[in-house]
Amino acid sequence: MSLDSHEARLTRLIAIRHGETAWNVDTRIQGQLDIGLNETGRWQAGRLARALADVTIDAVYSSDLLRALDTARAVANVAGQPVRLDASLRERGFGSFEGLTYAEVESRFPDEARRWRQRDPQFAPEGGESLADFQARAVAAVAAIASRHRGQHVVVFTHGGVLDALYRAASHITLDAPRTWHLGNAGINRLLHGDHGFTLVGWADMLHLEAPSLEEGSA
């Protein structure tokens, strides 16, 4: 296979966690509850749209949860693309943990919290997903999107847990291994997807959220 034909079978992916929410600030578990962006999150979405304004984007996909969708809309409007919703891109379902802070989970469900901290792949909060089931769902969802867009550039707006699943899949890291990589709100994460799965290209590019804007710099 020639280099050109090989590249034509690769999908370039930008995977983005939604902008900040009030529950992120409060360390409250959102899971699949539909929490919108806060003021900082809306600002982050705008800065992200500027950062990607010169990138040719062939398709935009988003979780159907509002925090991801509103982040996606900011970029899609600049890119001139519709947002395609995919519920399979949702965050892990945390069942009885949803709506609680990390401290409240520790207090109310100490045994379950221990298994959660230890990243037990088979543990699922009551009414929620196990880590193993969630990983399979998240990776399959993004792989399916990539397979529909061979040779194209796709942006996927999703959640921290999904990004963690993609990082592990691309880096061949087990589910129970401690996380040592960043999952920042509105960060830019780049991957390739082809016949052999995911490959990591770049991770946690946050420069667009750190550098002053032209308006700020000229004020």
Distance between the terminal alpha carbons, to the nearest Å?
A: 54 Å
CATH architecture label: 3-Layer(aba) Sandwich
Whole-number tally of structural domains = 1
Main β-sheet description: 6 strands, mixed
Share of residues in helices: 25-40%
Q: In the CATH scheme, what's the topology name?
A: Rossmann fold
The CATH first-level class comes to Alpha Beta
User: What's the SSE pattern?
Assistant: HEHHEHEHHHEHEEH
Please tell me how large the radius of gyration is: 18 Å
Low-confidence regions: 214-219
Percent strand: 15-25%
Task: Give a brief rundown of this model.
The chain has nine helices and six strands, in the order H-E-H-H-E-H-E-H-H-H-E-H-E-E-H. With about 220 residues, it is an alpha/beta fold.
Ordered list of secondary-structure elements with their pairings:
Elements: H1 3-8, E1 11-17, H2 22-25, H3 39-51, E2 59-62, H4 66-79, E3 83-85, H5 102-108, H6 110-117, H7 131-148, E4 153-158, H8 160-171, E5 188-194, E6 197-205, H9 214-218
Helix pairs in contact: 3-4, 5-6, 7-8
Could you walk me through the main structural features you see in this protein, from its secondary elements to its overall organization?
There is one protein chain. The chain is an alpha/beta fold. It has a single domain, classed as Rossmann fold. Helices cover 40% and strands 16% of the residues. The chain contains 9 helices and 6 strands. The chain has a 6-stranded mixed sheet, sandwiched between helices. Helix 4 (66-79) links the parallel strand 2 and strand 3 (83-85). Helix 3 (39-51) runs parallel beside helix 4 (66-79), helix 5 (102-108) packs across helix 6 and helix 7 (131-148) packs across helix 8. The longest helix is centred in the middle third of the chain and has 18 residues, at 131-148. The chain is globular and about 50 Å long. It starts with a helix and ends with a helix. 37% of the residues are buried. Mean pLDDT is 94; it is low at 214-219.
